[in-house]
Design a protein that fits this description.
globular; Glutaredoxin; 29% helix; 24% strand; two-stranded antiparallel sheet
């Protein structure tokens, strides 16, 4: 009986205002954290040149859920999640905007990665990880891939450290859209 009560406490507890799911049935890794509305921090303003070399992108999209995915062309798990990200981006075009953040990379390698992945959304080229550093405390520089979901009010509603599935991401987008 005591074991059941202790187990129930750990399943329900949300330390530090975030809900860390080891596995919520959505196929998520232990790197998932959902932030309650009261504990959501304002997302940093990031922007920069596109990986393509022409134009710029930002994560400023008021009134829309924004998904920021941090990746690098030499990252195996990043390659592994590329199809899932694209599927989630295509299935949520009405309510969410996706922006990739390519960090500590060579532009030619990043361009080749995007050609083979078939990504349809903009990707900021951040070779010195200066834009990523603005997510200090949310997305660690050494954890690639990682993803932040930003609600319609510009606050971080969830973050995933490690690869993400399309199912998990679309669920997090729906939650962020409903809570704003």
């Amino acid at each position: 009986m005591i074991a059941v009560v202790v187990a129930a406490f750990f399943v329900v507890a949300k330390p530090g205002g975030k809900d860390s799911d080891a596995d919520s049935g959505l196929g998520v890794s232990s790197g998932l954290a959902r932030f309650t509305e009261a504990d959501r921090e304002k997302a940093p303003g990031i922007e920069g040149p596109l990986v393509s070399g022409s134009g710029r992108a930002s994560i400023s999209h008021p009134g829309k859920v924004v998904v920021v995915n941090v990746w690098q062309s030499t990252c195996g798990p990043c390659r592994g999640e590329a199809d899932a990200l694209e599927a989630a981006a295509r299935s949520t075009t009405e309510g969410a905007t996706f922006v990739g953040l390519d960090v500590v990379d060579q532009r030619a390698a990043a361009q080749a990665f995007l050609r083979t992945s078939g990504s349809s959304y903009p990707h900021i080229f951040d070779p010195d990880a200066q834009q990523l550093l603005k997510f200090n405390g949310i997305l660690p520089v050494q954890a690639i891939p990682s993803t932040a979901v930003i609600d319609k009010k510009g606050r971080i509603s969830a973050r995933i450290i490690g690869p993400v599935s399309a199912q998990t991401l679309t669920q997090l987008i729906a939650e962020a859209a409903a809570s704003s």
